[in-house]
Amino acid sequence: MEVRGLRKDYGASTVVAGVDLDIRQGEIFALLGPNGAGKTTTVEILEGHRRRTGGDVRVLGEDPGRAGGAWRARIGIVLQSASDSAELTVAESLRHFARYYPDPRDPEEVVRLVGLEEKRNARVQTLSGGQRRRLDVALGIIGRPELLFLDEPTTGFDPEVRRKFWTLIELLAAEGTTILLTTHYLDEAEALADRVAVLAGGRVVAEGTPATLGGRANAEATVRWTDARGAHERRTPRPTSLVNELSAGGGELGGLTVTRPSLEDTYLDLIGERR
Ligand SMILES: Nc1ncnc2c1ncn2[C@@H]1O[C@H](COP(=O)(O)OP(=O)(O)OP(=O)(O)O)[C@@H](O)[C@H]1O
């Protein structure tokens, strides 16, 4: 997927202001950013659900603004709020949507993948919020997409289900599915994404692997330790030297920790919100 100079205006206000992205096949890419940053707008343009004001976009080799049904069958979409087929059961809706695709997954397999076996015969309207979201994910992957868009996929998931969902996403990526997800959970981005981009005010303010984003890997570290005089904390760009110095006498340093900024610290710095 290649995006160059993507722009979206609503009247006089520009909500996407020149975004460039390259997402490789089989990659898990996370789009981060505060509310209103332009994530959903960007993703909806890439899905062909919204017109752009400017820029070049190629998704699976085609312009989503012009692509037809064959292209659409190659992508899977999980929106923030899904359309409803509340009268059907879980298994029925999966069978129903499978018919739209040339090479769908087996609906029973998909029920298992998202952990809805016990609810396979339940009507959609009786599902809990988190179960409903799992069905959304199931519907997003039923067509065996080459590219899967996930807009805040795990909102409302309990911790165990979130972990299972991460495993599912990793499985799909291992099969070669390209995944673009938006999320407000930085632990999710850190666990899943090969690369992340931070969007703020309609611009990409940083891009990289979760480990190196915003110079994180080489950022100033905080060294903490405790001795007879109490607890100490020092920030330094060269923590190894400091620890060497402190332990020169050969003694153990009590409670020694060396920490770099977390992805969340880095993210908050990037969007200008760090306390
Ligand atoms: N149809 C529309 N008309 C006018 N403004 C819009 C429209 N859709 C979105 N916007 C504005 O565009 C900006 C970006 O919205 P968008 O939904 O892309 O943000 P987001 O990064 O996905 O936010 P969130 O994290 O809250 O989902 C917001 O200021 C929003 O109010």
UniProtKB/TrEMBL annotation:
Membrane topology: Peripheral membrane protein
PROSITE patterns tied to this protein: ABC_TRANSPORTER_1, ABC_TRANSPORTER_2
SUPFAM superfamilies: P-loop containing nucleoside triphosphate hydrolases
GO BP field: response to antibiotic
Pfam families from the UniProt entry: ABC_tran (PF00005)
Localization per Swiss-Prot or TrEMBL: Cell membrane
Keyword set, alphabetical order: Antibiotic resistance, ATP-binding, Cell membrane, Membrane, Nucleotide-binding, Translocase, Transport
SMART domains in UniProt: AAA (SM00382)
GO MF annotations, alphabetized: ATP binding; ATP hydrolysis activity
Residue ranges annotated for the ABC transporter domain, each copy included: 1-226
Alphabetized Gene3D superfamilies for the sequence: P-loop containing nucleotide triphosphate hydrolases (3.40.50.300)
One GO cellular component term noted in the UniProt record for this chain: plasma membrane
UniProt-listed PANTHER family: ABC TRANSPORTER ATP-BINDING PROTEIN
Record-given protein name: ABC transporter ATP-binding protein
